[in-house]
Amino acid sequence: PYTGPSAADILAKRKAYLSPSLFHFYNKPLNIVDGKMQYLFDESGRRYLDAFGGIATVCCGHCHPDVIKSITNQINRIQHTTVVYLNHAIADFAEALASKMPGNLKVVFFTNSGTEANELAMMIARLYTGCNDIISLRNAYHGNAAGTMGATAQSNWKFNVVQTGVHHALNPDPYRGVFGSDGEKYAKDVQDLIDFGTSGHVAGFISEAIQGVGGIIELAPNYLPAVYASIKKAGGLCIADEVQSGFGRTGSHFWGFETQGVVPDMVTMAKGIGNGIPLGAVVTTPEVAEVLTRRCYFNTFGGNPVCTAAGLAVLNVIEKEKLQNNAFVVGSHLKERLTALKDKYEIIGDVRGRGMMLGVELVSDRQLKTPAKAETLHVMEQMKELGVLIGKGGFHGNVFRITPPLCLTKDDADYLVDAMDYTLSKM
Ligand code: PMP
Fold first, then answer.
1. What is the C-alpha to C-alpha distance for residues 118 and 280, in angstroms, rounded to an integer?
2. Which residue blocks in 130-222 are alpha helix, DSSP H?
3. Closest listed residue to residue 340, CA positions, set 421, 409, 425, 404
4. Residue 338 alpha carbon to ligand 1 centre in Å
5. d(CA 393, CA 222)
6. 3 state SS of 100
7. Where are the domains of the chain?
8. Spans of the chain below 70 pLDDT
9. For burial by CB atoms within 10 Å, which of 112, 232, 285, 290 has the most?
10. Can you name the residues that pair with 204 across neighbouring β-strands?
11. b or e along 299-337 (b: 16 or more beta carbons within 10 Å of the residue's beta carbon)?
């Protein structure tokens, strides 16, 4: 049993010594002391179904034995910097990761986070093209350093960073967007930005395939092929941010961009890549990667032996346990059941997403799509009491984010929906 400090003690320390900007879920924040696969345990030993997965981070399950074994084997031998000396763990994982990529995407740059990966990808695009302008989508989240905060396009995540060279295109949002599900109409806005907001030449375009922080918004069909064509014509590079949608989470595909049938020039990733271990990567072509030889570039710990040992174990577990297929089968069942709830409750305005990246948007008026923010918080709180943890997001904070470990079972999915059903029925 857990004998450490209580939740109240931790909260007091956090208030005294940690960033005042740290936020937490729930009126009484959970003190999570153990994790096992899709379950989390609090200090009293109470079990919760983890349907948020540390923000789409845990793909294999918490404390997956194969991942732990790989990490501990490596750390018992050596942990050190990625650069300067050779170590097989780094090279082995780079090779395995490259084998999961389409086209000529086979050069891997490791980082410690998604922010770093996107910063690097944007810099590479600017170096390669000699241009500065980058287009990203409204409602996107790409990170919190200067460049990526510029590409991020939700005011609640932005400080007053200098925005030079970042243009934000209309979001191809099938639920709230002006053109509904017509991806090609939204893509025209990117061409307009190129024509009227730049010299006609751009460094690149960056987007998620399914916006995570933005509230699980799947880009309207046919959007990316049209945009990628415009960007290529303008000499730019296309960057796919797979920080949340990668590693089989969408079920139908290993990478989110594949759902739109495109091949990017650069793919950025983090979160699921290490099942919770800090690791990120940019994968690109040898030709594009060459630009970084113009100066010295290195990252002390990005892709260090322990983190890449974790990464390799993650890829093996996804394959061995057929987690992508599980994300597809169980995720489809979960989506079907959530969609049925929408018929039962007026407050559910939309159910969307793919595989194990699902969103449920609550509105107090279906016609006006008025965000039901308070109700969203209430349902989350009640579901926690029933033992189910889900996330929330979206600009208005009225979208449930369901991004569990990919080992979620059909029974877990049913329990989640039953808990949501019960809570909504009591409102
Ligand atoms: N891109 C996306 C799509 C993300 O969701 C996030 C994190 N929420 C990031 C980039 C930034 O990753 P990190 O927090 O690891 O810097």
1. 9
2. 146-151, 183-197
3. 421
4. 26
5. 25
6. coil
7. 7-60+322-425, 65-320
8. none
9. 112
10. 134, 237
11. bebbbbbbbbbbbbbbbebbeebebbebbbebbbebbeb
Query: Which class for 39: exposed (0-12), middle (13-18), buried (19 or more C-beta within 10 A)?
Result: middle
Pocket test for ligand 1, best of 111, 137, 144, 271 (most atoms within 8 A of CB): 271
Q: Are 324 and 407 in contact (CB under 8 A)?
A: no
Of all residues in the chain, the percent with pLDDT exceeding 90 is 99
Task: Round to whole Å and give the CA distance between 360 and 378.
Answer: 14
Q: Over the stretch 175-216, which tens digit does the pLDDT of each residue have?
A: 999 999 999 999 999 999 999 999 999 999 999 999 999 999
Residue identifier of the C-alpha nearest atom 8 of ligand 1: 213
Identify residue 177 by its one-letter amino acid code.
G
Q: Name the amino acid, one letter, at 426.
A: K
Under CATH, which number does the domain 7-60+322-425 receive? 3.90.1150.10
208 lines ligand 1 (CB under 6 A): yes
Question: DSSP readout, 35-62?
Answer: EEBTEEEETT--EEEESSHHHHT-SS-B
> What's the token pair of residue 117?
């990966």
CA–centroid distance, 206 to ligand 1, in Å, is 13
Dump the DSSP string for 131-155: ---EEEETT----SSHHHHHH---G
- List residues bridging with 361 in a β-sheet: 350, 399
Interface ipTM above 0.95: yes
Q: Ligand 1 center to residue 118 CA distance, Å? A: 9
3-state secondary structure of 194: helix
Q: What tens digit of pLDDT does each residue of 51-86 get?
A: 999 999 999 999 999 999 999 999 999 999 999 999
Angle subtended at Cα 109 by Cα 54 and Cα 146, rounded to the nearest 5 degrees = 65
Q: Is the pTM of this model over 0.90?
A: yes
CATH 3.90.1150.10: does it fit domain 65-320?
Answer: no
